[in-house]
Amino acid sequence: MEILKIKGGRPLIGSIPISGAKNSALALLPATLLAETPCTIENVPDIRDVKIFVNLLRQMGAEVAAEGSTLRVDATRVTNRPMTDSGVRSLRASCYLMGALLGRFGEAVVGLPGGCHLGPRPIDQHIKGFEALGATVSQRDGAIHLKAPRLKGARIYLDVVSVGATINIMLAAVFAEGLTVIENAAKEPEIVDVATFLNGMGARIKGAGTDVIRIRGTSRLGGCRHAIIPDRIEAGTYMIAAAATGGEVRLDQVIPLHLEPISAKLREMGVPVTEGDESVTVKGTKNLLPADIKTQPYPGFPTDLQPPFTVLLTQAAGTSLVIENVFEGRLRHTLELNRMGARIRTDGRMALIEGGTPLNGIQVRAVDLRAGAALVVAGLVAEGETVITDIHHIDRGYEQIDGKLRRLGADVWRE
Ligand SMILES: CC(=O)N[C@H]1[C@@H](OP(=O)(O)OP(=O)(O)OC[C@H]2O[C@@H](n3ccc(=O)[nH]c3=O)[C@H](O)[C@@H]2O)O[C@H](CO)[C@@H](O)[C@@H]1O
Ligand SMILES: C=C(OP(=O)(O)O)C(=O)O
């Protein structure tokens, strides 16, 4: 089991490129199952979740060839088989096999998805969507069984704004007869990326990025070439780390508009953020103001950046409030941060963070992906050496985190 060691106290200085978005890549890979000819996907992040998903595609009979960060996926010889192994159960995005296999074969057996433990993560809205399209859905032996001899377009209102349900319904609906309308759809940039990819394959999807998405069914899709959008969560993590260490960091290959919820919050705290065409620069300040964070679906403040942002708030001059509106169990990182010297009190979905608390390097455990990212930021700020265990969680979503941090002058290594 690898660990990360960080000697804190050095400001991050310099520039690094941001990789392709995890949450796009993990939806585009299953989307390739819908194409009759090979797809080429550029800017694929080299992260653990992608490797696991590529293995799942290979298990199903797809040919996947990599050249640098470009993947060529030929899913023409894929056969439908129950997908229930540990890879499926370790990924949240494996739930997209339901929509993609239902769309392609009219039936699917897919194990219940995994992903970060953030409290309950139901899939009732995915199922509501599949049923509205005409599928029968049942759960047996830890797997979802779906069947629909013919999918028919329908009007589907999501009771909660869900990234996963929006994408899954899009995947199933591209071959549904007639018009499917998703109302109260999620608006994340990754959803727009998936719709752009599917449209490149020949699908007819309109409205992605708004809360009403219209999908007119088609009978065939072909492969296409597509470059994944930059990972706004990876970028946001480094923006936070730059601010927390009082450094100056330029992030290249980003879409500044996607980072606006984070840039706006940093500016509110007195941290200058400047935007180029495809870059953002964050300049740390000694006088960090406190701020309140309420996580929301896009374009609100992203839940995935709440854990690392909490660390920044421990360094502000005053008390800050965090309200985690998306996942009820996403404050577990605060326990480890308190062991490092933070003073954070939690109550349900709320955390009250006392600012101006020095952090000390100790051994801590990454309980999930972004809790792990929070500990990395804490380690960069802390006095002394921080040892982070269970870093396989961090590797799920950050490409070469130690290498990128070293390029910015951090004293961090993997053992
Ligand atoms: C692989 C991937 O893209 N993961 C992202 C995706 O997760 P994921 O797609 O799982 O998150 P959702 O947007 O679906 O979840 C949002 C909220 O809706 C609830 N819900 C969701 C579906 C459902 O059927 N019923 C239901 O009640 C969830 O419990 C949660 O409270 O979006 C989250 C919210 O931006 C991010 O944190 C994750 O990084
Ligand atoms: C919650 C996350 O991922 P997943 O949905 O894949 O568990 C995340 O990326 O922070």
TrEMBL record:
It comes from the Bacteria. One of its GO terms (biological process) is regulation of cell shape. The keyword Ubl conjugation does not apply. GO terms for cellular component: cytoplasm. It catalyses: phosphoenolpyruvate + UDP-N-acetyl-alpha-D-glucosamine = UDP-N-acetyl-3-O-(1-carboxyvinyl)-alpha-D-glucosamine + phosphate. Pfam families: EPSP_synthase (PF00275). It is found in: Cytoplasm. The modification 2-(S-cysteinyl)pyruvic acid O-phosphothioketal is found at residue 116. The keyword Ion transport does not apply. Its main location: cytoplasm. Residues 7-405 form the Enolpyruvate transferase domain. The active site is at residue 116. Signal peptide: none annotated. UDP-N-acetyl-alpha-D-glucosamine binds at residues 92, 121-125, 304, 326. Phosphoenolpyruvate binds at residues 22-23. Its EC number is 2.5.1.7. SUPFAM superfamilies: EPT/RTPC-like. GO terms for molecular function: UDP-N-acetylglucosamine 1-carboxyvinyltransferase activity. Pathway: Cell wall biogenesis; peptidoglycan biosynthesis. Keywords: Cell cycle, Cell division, Cell shape, Cell wall biogenesis/degradation, Cytoplasm, Peptidoglycan synthesis, Pyruvate, Transferase. HAMAP family: MurA. Belongs to the EPSP synthase family. MurA subfamily. Cell wall formation. Adds enolpyruvyl to UDP-N-acetylglucosamine. This is UDP-N-acetylglucosamine 1-carboxyvinyltransferase. The gene is murA.
